[in-house]
Amino acid sequence: MPYYRLKDLIKAIRACKTAADERAVIQKESAAIRTSFKEENNDARHSNVAKLLYIHMLGYPAHFGQIECLKLVASNRFADKRLGYLGIMLLLDENQEVLTLVTNSLKNDMNHSNMYIVGLALCTLGNISSPEMARDLCAEVEKLLGSSNTYIRKKAALCAMRIIRKVPDLQENFLNRAKNNLNDRNHGVLLTAITLIIEMCYKNPETVQTFRKTVPLLVRHLKTLVSAGFSQEHDVTGVTDPFLQVKILRLLRILGKGDAEASEAMNDILAQVATNTESSKNVGNSILYETVQTIMEIQSENTNAVQRHRNIILDCLRDGDISIRRRALELSFALINESNVRVLTRELLAFLEVADNEFKQGMTTKICLAADRFAPNKRWHIDTVLRVLKLAGNFVREEILSNFIRLVSQTTELNAYTAQKLYASLKSDISQESLTLAGVWVIGEYGDILIKGGNFEEEELVKEVTESDVIDLLESILAGPYANQVTREYVLTALMKLTSRFTSISSIQRIQAYIEKYNTSIEVEVQQRAVEYSNLFKFESIRPAVLERMPIPEVKEEVVRQTEDTGSLLDDIGPVTATTATPQNAKNDIMNLFSSGSLLDDIDPVTATTAAPLNAKNDIMNLFSPGPTTPTTAPVAPTQNAQQTNALDSLGLLGLGDQYVAYNKNGFKVSLNPSKDPNNSNILNIEVTFHNVGVGVTVQNLLFQAAVPKTQKLQMQPPSSTSILPGATAQQTIRVANPQKSNVRLRLRIVYSTPTGAKVDEIAEFNGFPQEIW
Amino acid sequence: MLRFFLLVNKQGQTRFSRYYSGMPIQAEERVLMEADIARKCLKRSDVQCSIFEYGQYKLAYRRYASLFFVIGFDEEENHLSILELVQAYVEILNTYFDNVCELDIMFNIEKVHVILEEMVSNGRIVETNKHNVLAPVLEMNKASR
Questions:
Q1: To which H or E segment does residue A208 belong?
Q2: Do A320 and B88 touch (CB under 8 A)?
Q3: Which of A74, A299, A394, A731 is 20 to 30 A from A749, comparing alpha carbons?
Q4: Domains of chain B
């Protein structure tokens, strides 16, 4: 017996005690519905479809109702239409052929006089249209987007969004209308228009340019929202239309990214929103969240708004929820600057103590990086790294360790201090591998200072360190359960070094005996060291010379990349040692052309070596993301047309594959040959070839400089030659690290002179690598 | 964009569900997923965050009496905004049904669908203003008498 109304069916299902009961009821009802459909019972169709939708929601098959929904849509009664469209939305998706049958009904309904019916049609189209339907009905939606009725305009905007998604080519049709809608006063229309624009910007980055002009308008809207008094219809617990605010902020973020002028315009309002919004409730927090994200992404000089919340962020580090802790961690690292480095590092070290292991590696690297960049003095720096080693020594990367050792060797005045501290910490704890390695190395190198220094404060007790104490410690490390092969190698070397640092014969003999024990070690490396060191004892004359103090490593500032918690440092890109041959005459020009403004307040520490040409390279990097000091670079900024000849015409000339011509002017051609690095898919090796095709004379003093977007890093090898005879070529290899897999774009500067006295200094942009390359 | 909108009660029964494009879910998987989500929400305590990750989506949920309102969304949306959307939706339902309860939702499921349609279209927020959402709905109700 079929249940006539949906209510009865629901009651019956609720009355079922077991799942089997429920299944039985539903199957009986399904059968009844099917029969009723076959009988073309028009009156009962409505309730049948309603029941079918309910059954569908519970997870039972309901495809036989699809045609019925279509019939309902065709009916004239509003209730039928509404249910029919709902049924279509729930039961059908764009892949079903049945959907095309609806197209005609949709077209008729979109032209209907009743705005609710139009709304229904737009809703349905917006939810499930297929690409073909989108193309068919695009014109109708365009018309409705310009309708005078706000209800319709609202829905049309979202429908347009779906169309754009399905058929990106149709985007241009909606541009103007969308822009006009931005002037609307109705919040619903505004909201949907902004959503539509955001979608357009995501799909097609060129439209971002068109919409940049609307930034002042958006700022005005946001200002009205923030400073408006209480508005009854839009108020949500004290905040005026938070959804609209969030959407405007999101659009501002997209428009402001990478564009200084737009970012300037929105700085004020961002600061205002950040300060005025009440953060005690979720509403306020949602707005603050969006604001913070926007501030971080656009080039804002003024990150004070976020600094204000530093304490909250630090508290969040201790929150119970792990996702909050993770975000707080990322944010804290982004906030570190000279003024707050001490406080923040202290907090972060406290957090390191209790952090989960998955955080520890990322944290150690970042803390040491931050310490490197912002350390107020050396002692603090050493202390901090020591503390890190003590807390999480097992999670410290090798580069950090080697940086630390380099730092220690360079800070000769603190050698004694460091040696003592390491000795003390090793005495208490030998379980942290990196700490052990660092400590052993330092003790080995500076053992004599350690003994001479003699006394050191440990918990207000002055302790004497004697040679046998040190040897005891090293032996205990060797014998301890934490020693692995690397540790043993280090300890043996350290012991050997001590034989030339220590003076008492008994110590030296003790060490010799100990080393000889390892002559028969199973580990080959260890055995080799032991045997060689033992043999060294026979050559008394040269032994001290061999074991002299290590020379202080050069002041080589490295380019160490930021890690995510799970990311990997690109070990291949080591120190930036590019030595672009810089002709002296061009150097001054470089200095004058580029602004000498400070590097942007960004996270990646690209510090150049002392060589001047690399300073120029940093300024090139500034070109790509022009910071606050733009005036002097304006004339040089690429208003020149970029030579983007992606044509593979050079293929014929050179017979090489995958050559892209980046620059071809006045007979001088620069072509690029990219290839992915076999060892690391994040690195792109580019072979740059300079062709002197038609200059007619020798190209001399060639200088080639390049810059990449901020998310990537560049390393350049020296060119094969800086003089190119006519018809000859020269090569240069550059490597681009692209961990974020973003578009590899290059800004190139080509400088050369000819014997006739002509000087060429050109800038070109290259953006033509296909997506597979990166 | 929003991926789905789900109302489940404490016994794990789905009271209302709406999926938006891009969710390739067949009936059986759907049921399983809904039950799984209900379980996860039930397990969480009051002090835990209302937003968590589930597979490739993020879920934001709030419990009102015996019902969990769960919204699944992906990267682009502002998480806290979604929570606000849930609150707005509940308030609108409250006004429409006069102190809404689970039974109201169960027995008037088409109305609930219609109200959600007015607020969210194809996974994007259209309108959150109570008056603007309810006025058309009431008009349409009159028209379908």
A1: helix A206-212
A2: no
A3: A299
A4: 2-143 (3.30.450.60)
